[in-house]
Amino acid sequence: MARILVTGGSGFIGTHLINALLARSDVVSNVDVRPPVLDDHGTCWTRLDILDDASLRKHVETFKPDVIFNLAAVADISLPIEAFRANTVGLRHVLESAERLSPRPRVIHTST
Prior knowledge:
Blueprint: E1 3-7, H1 12-23, E2 27-32, E3 45-47, H2 53-63, E4 67-70, H3 85-99, E5 106-109
Parallel strand pairs: 1-2, 1-4, 2-3, 4-5
Helix pairs in contact: 2-3
């Protein structure tokens, strides 16, 4: 049983990942600005924007994940460049939050 933090876990990929993790009996925390699409994922969801550095750090320090899956991202290329801050600044916040823990969690980042 591992402690797994998923950013952006309310999306398509995140929903399926969380299903697989819960089926393995992992302890899962989903941080996302959107609520999960599946009701049974509500117990592991925290409304949190990875652009909120202080809140993300506090959550990571409290949850103490073994692994972080960073799925949070904006993928709509029709949006202005400012909309992609979650993909850049948010990623930096995730990495810096992980770096503060000892032992450091493994971070798995998906690309958009």
